[in-house]
Amino acid sequence: MSVRTIIEPFRIKSVEPIRWTTREQREELLKAAHYNLFLLHADDVLIDLLTDSGTGAMSTHQWAAIMEGDESYAGSRSYDRFRNSVHDIVGYTHIIPTHQGRAAERILFGVTCKKGDVVPNNTHFDTTRANVEFVGAEAVDLLIPEGRQPSLQYPFKGNMDVVALEALIARVGRERIPLVMLTVTNNSGGGQPVSMENVRQVSAICKRHRIPLYFDACRFAENAWFIKLREPGYADKTPKEIAQEMFRYGDGCTMSAKKDGMANIGGFLCTSNDLLAQQEKDLLILTEGYPTYGGLAGRDLEAIAVGIQEALQVDYLRYRIASTAYLGNHIAEGGVPIVQPPGGHAIYIDARAFLPHIPSSQFPGVALASELYLEGGVRSVEIGTLMFANAAQMDLVRLAMPRRVYTQSHVDYLVEVILEVFRNRAQIRGMRLTHEAPFLRHFTAHLAPI
Ligand code: F0G
């Protein structure tokens, strides 16, 4: 018997208790939350897989850096460290800090887009789509067809359909497309990676039409790891070299440092275009803060400066991707339909296949997420008809893994809960909406079982 080669590459210095509830309590709590898991109190959740955003554990190096935070309003040392660390990876001239990813999106689209414009993306995340639409532009998803078939095995299901991109540019004209975006990894499409080859092709098309290419870079390190594992020619490159190469094919990026920045808050917007950067910084001052802090404390900038480099470490990425796959592979072996292959930051259960008796109009993803909570106190999130309404191409339940937070025994428990719900799936009922907000309705919607 050989000894395993992957374990959690850290030991735990600080712990936080989690709390059991009874099934009867959870029934009451779920009713009070109108069957919307966003409305639960976090103390009533045992294993919280709502998001991998801002929920990671920081390292001793990050906590030490936090103590070095320089809280000067302008020109702080912490900004320099943040700027140099991010610049080392992305290579763009202007690194504009923001309080999180959507603030970078709002500023980018606010400055570059107007009514009637069109923004193509492999798949817009919900806040990205909402920010594009908020300025009157149209958000178009151009995912390859393979990316829309949950059970299909394909190494780069996050790729953009380059034929569809060419067709879109021909149809609407390059003047109406202020930028093209690639989301790495493709969160709404199953945490699936984009290949370097696809990045290169999209970049070539953008250059030919003189359209800037931006990355929604939230999970750039996980994407780089998948390229290393799966794409010919990259096995011997470091994750950082792969990430650096990817960013070279683009003109800028938006980033939520709450993901592969390994921080609890923060983000940034990058460009090498001086004129654009000036307009972005002007808007930043209006709504986020001075350009050397952008709505963050100096200590937050320090946490990102250290964390974004840690996210690229080989030991960490090997563990990270293996631990997510461990969950996915174990439930898939039990028959649970998931988006294959397992994603980087999350496992996505195909709720339409899990609950074939519940039509999309009755929110099978919400029904399944509610049941996972009832069964085991597990909080997940629907990515489907509630989140995207008519734009939903799948009904998925995402189990997002916070970084460096849960151990293998937590994951074994999750497997048991999910398999138990799968055994009893025939009893699960659909849902109906009883209240909805005009946009981003999934955060606050109220539902009830049918
Ligand atoms: N882009 C992608 C691909 C994201 O996944 C997110 C956030 C954002 C942009 C916005 O970043 O939250 O810092 O404003 N995703 C989180 C999630 C919320 O749960 O997937 P933010």
Beta-strand content estimate: 5-15%
Number of strands: 14
- H and E order: HEHHEHEHEHEHEHHEEHHHEHHEEHEHEE
Low-confidence stretches: none
Q: Can you give the helix content as a percent range?
A: 40-55%
> Remind me, CATH topology of the largest domain?
Aspartate Aminotransferase, domain 2
The chain-level structural class is alpha/beta
Q: What would CATH call the architecture of the largest domain?
A: 3-Layer(aba) Sandwich
* Strand arrangement across the biggest beta sheet: 2-8-7-6-5
**Shape, per Cα inertia axes:** globular
Please work out how many helical segments DSSP would assign: 16
Largest sheet: 5 strands, mixed
Q: Radius of gyration, rounded? A: 21 Å
How far apart the termini lie comes to 52 Å
Highest CATH level, the class of the largest domain: Alpha Beta
| Superfamily (CATH H level) name of the largest domain | Type I PLP-dependent aspartate aminotransferase-like (Major domain)
Number of domains: 2
Average the pLDDT over all residues and give the rounded result. 96
Attached small molecules? ligand F0G
